[in-house]
Batch of 3 targets.
Target 1
Amino acid sequence: MSEAKIEAWLEEDREFAPSEAFSAQANAQPSIYDEAAKDPVAWWREQANRVTWDVAPTSTLEWELPNAKWFADGMLNASVSCVDVHVREGRGDRVAFNWVADAEGESRVITYHELYREVCRTANALIELGVKKGDRIAVYMPMIPEAVFAMLAIVRLGAIHSVVFGGFSADALASRILDSDCRFVVTADGAFRRGAATPLKPAVDEALKSCPDVSAVLVVKRTDGAVDWVEGRDHWWHDIVERQSASHEPESFPAETPLFIMYTSGTTAKPKGIFHTTGGYLTQAATTYYYVFDVKPETDVCWTAADIGWITGHSYIVYGPLINGVTQIMYEGLPDSGGRDRWWKIISHYKATILYTAPTTIRTLMKWGHQIPEGYDLSSLRLLGTVGEPINPEAWMWYRKNIGGSRCPIVDTWWQTETGAILCSPLPGITATKPGAAMRALPGISVAVVDDAGNEVGNNSGGYLVVTAPWPSMTRGIWGDPDRFMSTYWARFPGKYFAGDGAKLDAEGDLWLLGRVDDVMNISGHRLSTTEVEHALVGHHAVAEAAVVGASDDTTGQAIVAFVTLKLSADDADKDQAALIEELRAHVASVISPIAKPRQIILTPELPKTRSGKIMRRLLRDVAENRSLGDVTTLTDPTVVNMIAGLMDTSATAED
Ligand code: WT7
């Protein structure tokens, strides 16, 4: 994306600046940054009051790098903050979840009072199965309300959930169960995707062959399929949960009690069990949800369109929204379950006010065409969010115009599994926005962009994003591997948290994320981000999605190889492929610079993506460099890479 084009947009649409109508009623006020900066730790202590404490903390931060303790002498129960407090304070009749099934017409309304009863019943059932404080429990579930009941019931008992995304294989599930020694599994017989029932329990059965210490499996019946059954180990949810008492006296736990483990991929093959603790995590999940999404619990209908199996689902479907007591939409299906207009049907039906999703999904919706959302009344929306990868300015603009009616602020939220909650994002009504920029650190958070030597870069420069002060929801480590925690995050720049992302500060000092640093290319000594080239390619009208990798090259060090999918409706469909490839190369050269011209462009019907929707650039780099392919188990469709490797072999390499 050329800066000139972004500038032109900014000229044309001053609404990127905080609109007065929005500012007047926004939760955050301009002074919030200064207030927090005066004494960030004290500011966070204030924010901790959003959480319900049985014993209010008197301590704030104890910091001995890399180990942080926040609010350590406070005592609380996470599920009380999410559920009991709302019932206790008279909000029990408010809807917590409008759950929408994959199949049209199937839905369920769950009030806070009902959520309380379901969580208590589930907690009582877990006690009957032998669950105790500190136990680890794997949750391997589709997007159904029982997944939330299970998570909250587990933490209510002081046990620790490890939610494993339902799309993972039996092997992946087994390695996660073993790594943190889970003794229990909560699952379902199957899940629905685009109307079809897909089994889930067989993967659990397969995984448990290598996990002899799992003593009980709790199974929700979601489909009509038959399942294998291990007597004594397996228990139907409807047999054991439904007959339990609908009340349960919660115990109080110290603030640093582990709350959950979430596995995430690192640079090695073995996933890291990132763990979070209670008081600090809840404080920041609740605070960021309140300010970044500007929530109005009485009137908002919030939709975080993410899966519970990822950190976004933990922080912004479960903990953050529930502590704020908002009404949410929880959706089981895919964006095109029942048709490509499904999302817009849901938004117009429930009058959703806030939508939070990932750039990859926005680009898919874009590919399907703006005519689809145009057929629906989306005027209830007042705020849009994005997360997961840098958003290309075209997708940002499309989202703003076609979904947000050029009216809704967009919050581009940067964070990670490890950070637990959002660290960088504009604040709606206060911070100006720019298409593609995360803008700045939130109040109470300190980040910097540093060079190789760890020195802060100035404006108009790029480098590595680091976090320079501890924050409440920071991970407390990698489960069972403190050395890896230290070496991965705290050794690269002494005293600072190394996020692994490249970033730049623009002329005004605003923050742009450039993708993982391992995706930064060096072409003839020029530093170029894969994202920049992708943005350029996606800016061409024929391109739907692009993934760019730096492949080693004898003359230039690295050279750019781009994998591109075309838009279905593009009028270039009939064009000669070689001509289109040349046009795309020239386009990149004209948007960024001739240095950025891809050496090779491979047109492919699909890109290899992880089940969380991230493009697997590592695999594409392997393909581009003719290496044998590594671990492909986290891909949605492992055959895609082989197909692309085949295309590589037949595609000509440009000479100039
Ligand atoms: C990585 C973390 C945070 C929940 C989902 C992903 C990338 C995340 C943004 C953003 C640019 C982003 C970073 C980060 N990322 N949000 N708004 N702009 N990049 O969690 O799987 O732990 O991945 O996602 O590269 O390091 P995750």
Note: The radius of gyration is 24 Å.
Target 2
Amino acid sequence: MNIILLGPPGAGKGTQARFLVEGRNMIQLSTGDMLREAKTSGTEMGLRVAAIMDRGELVTDEIVIGLIREKLEGDKQGGFIFDGFPRTLKQADALAALLAATGERLDAVIEMQVDDAALVSRITARSTCGHCGEVYNDVTKPIPADHICTSCGVKADFKRRADDNEDSLKTRLMEYYKKTSPLIGYYYAKGQLHGVDGLGEMSAVEADIAKVLDR
Ligand code: AMP
């Protein structure tokens, strides 16, 4: 089963993808994570995209399509979760072609619906465990005082993303509405779109997604 998690920054795509990886042995393909890794390890491509990402703009379609193409050639396990990809119509067309070429298909597009006010407060308060990626929030789920992650049990560094600030978030939201939100109509027209309320408790959102996948 191959699915797309679609939604603005802070909608909870990464969190829900982690549940699906654990529960269904699926593979999370997050282009944001891949790009951040390239940036941290200082590859030529990583250096090229660093400033673009920090500003909250989208990197070129060619770069992210190339990253996804490579991953589709690998092990498929329980299927792929596309997280943060596609983000433009060109990427969506490229994904359809890549899947068709490998005899795979897209089973569902889950649109995670949240309102903008919730996104700003979620994102500016967000940090993650540097070891396992568990997401924390200054208000609703603060980092433990002893810095031992409640998910992996490791005393870890807790990281804030360089683009999780109000200025970059404004750009990221604008990019989302201008370039990514047309995908909602695109997948609706293809009969693949399923809306899920992303504002509920994490477990409620997880259950709603399960309903779509198990239908
Ligand atoms: P994310 O972790 O999905 O929020 O992505 C972080 C940043 O990486 C984005 O703001 C973009 O700069 C870049 N990025 C990630 N995925 C894509 C994509 N599919 N297309 C273009 N840029 C992307």
Note: Strands lie at 3-6, 27-30, 80-83, 108-113, 126-129, 135-137, 158-159, 193-197.
Target 3
Amino acid sequence: MRNVPDYFGCLVFDDKVMKSKLPTDVYQSLKKTREEGAPIDNGVANIVANAMKDWAVANGATHFTHWFQPLTGVTAEKHDSFIASADDSGIIMEFSGKELIQGEPDASSFPSGGLRATFEARGYTTWDPTSFAFVKDKTLYIPTAFCSYSGEALDKKTPLLRSMAALNKQALRILRLFGNNDVKSVHANVGPEQEYFLISQEMYELRPDIKFTGRTLFGAKSPKGQEMDDHYFGVIKPKVAAFMAELNEELWKLGVLAKTEHNEVAPSQHELAPIYTTTNIATDHNQLTMELMQKVASKHGLVCLLHEKPFAGINGSGKHNNWSMATNTGINLLSPGATPYENAQFLLFLCAVIKAVDDYQDLLRISVATAGNDHRLGANEAPPAIVSIFLGDELSSILDAIENETVYSGVEKTQLKLGVDVLPKFNRDTTDRNRTSPFAFTGNKFEFRMLGSSNSIACANIMLNAAVAESLKIYADRLEGANDFETTLHEMIKKTIKDHKRIIFNGNGYEEMWIKEATEKRGLCNYRTTPDCIPHMLDKKNVVMLTSHKIFTEAELKSRCEIQLENYCKTVVIEGNTMVSMAKTLILPAVEAYTLDLAKTAKMKQSLDAGLDCSYERKLVKNLSSVIGKIADDVEDLEKVLFDLHGFEDVKDEAFAIRDKVLPKMEALRVVCDEAELLTAKKYWPFPTYGDLLFCVR
Ligand code: ADP
Ligand code: MG
């Protein structure tokens, strides 16, 4: 086996490859484009394209594709081969700068949430030179943004790049005020921890619900679940270890910094965390990670489930989005500094995040809202649907002291005047990392823990970058016009703490008391479900903020709002239809067959005329018959509510109807079917049980 450093990134057209394959001036010009967004001219693009093609062909590629992230949540690609006919009726491999820079996939089948009605239907993809091209499956993948002809974003990358630009602009203004003139750019770093389940392919094939919806819609609790706490960080089983080893290798070849792997809380649940990198690349890499997890799993006879709640009654899967801001000179702006001045700057950036999370808690909640994630948030396995920040005791008491101008016990000073007095040298928080908090400060980064495992991390980071850019803009506006920088800074920090401390909560987020306090006393938003929160995307303050930083246009926001609601509706309807079909074609026939056989057994026993006791069979037949009746009734009810879902003027009304009418009927049907499972002999049951699914991988 080769050493990892020898093959790490071997399929990536990265800086090192560019340097060796491109003429120096072209390399420099491309570097400028990558780092400063300078426009690229045709001549340079042609040379880059040709070098990319030669390199890709040498690595086995025959095709190229513009790889993009439409609003479906997954990635999209259309492959074209490099071949072009040559004069001598042979072929040559060709790839032009034009083909590199722009592509024109047919946009009409991607969700556009009404944008197509108002804008030109055609869409085009544009090369994103900040994320490296790579070779996979004999194809050169070129990361691209996807826009409509009139420039409206039809994807997740475009607004993400815009949000990064906004954050960069505002953060630089602040850094200049602190006299940091050498810093050229600021970017957010992200490390997403990805949770997933592995089950055997064989079992998967037998479960239509997992196939169609990614989760189990039926299944009685297995006698053993996660109660022994024996899976978390447990020994990794050989089959899983083999999967992880191959996954790592594939990811490393693509330059993905796969770092940590371990078993998670639920049986068959695992996690993979990469080393953090810039938001845009982290987002592309997370998409690749999810894709490769599924591909590699199938090579090992496994199926990787990325759904947020594949199994009821045990933990679902999330994705912790570790986020921080850093300068191009390598300084983490969320890392407490050594000098008073650095500490004042740190506190200002910290306050910017606190203010952002409080002001735009709704947008953060919205950014993680899906039908799947609704099953996790607030279900005592993931943070509640209420956004709050965990800061830890030490940092909280420092903020307290600043707000109240009181003595902080960690220093001798009586008052903390920022930038003037020596601030306490506070250590990274070493207290328990409070896993119940949706947004936790963990020393030098924030960990946003509300994301669902299948979510693209783009949306959460767009909102986070945007909201923090807005706080920084407000600060910069004020500070740039201030007569006395230090006093204004001090007052501003004090005011932020006073105005936004309601969002800080260091206690247990799972407790009922917190929900009460958060909503009743603190006035925080509690949007339990997707239909509750999505419409707030269009609240005036949100539209104003997001459009003012040019992250979304109003039309784009409306379209996204609609798509997210449509997606919710479609997801639940598919689940409902799957349940109807499974109940009618699999569960009822199985229970009927068992009931009939039991009845026959009873009759035969009786006919033997030996005074045999048939009371067990009779009782069970009676029970089963009544359960069959209940299942039949509940299927009919569910079918009816699904059938009645039409005539909505607004997708919001449909989403609420689905939540309030369809989901309860699905739940009712599940309860009786799970009851039937426990009464029915195993050999009659038409698909694998929870026990089979959760403990099948060795
Ligand atoms: P854990 O939280 O499991 O103890 P870490 O805190 O080391 O582990 O890392 C979790 C994730 O956070 C990793 O993906 C890691 O790369 C990422 N991470 C660490 N530091 C930062 C940072 N400054 N900014 C963004 N992500 C970070
Ligand atoms: Mg962590």
Note: The chain has three domains: 4-155, 163-216+229-411+434-552, 568-694.
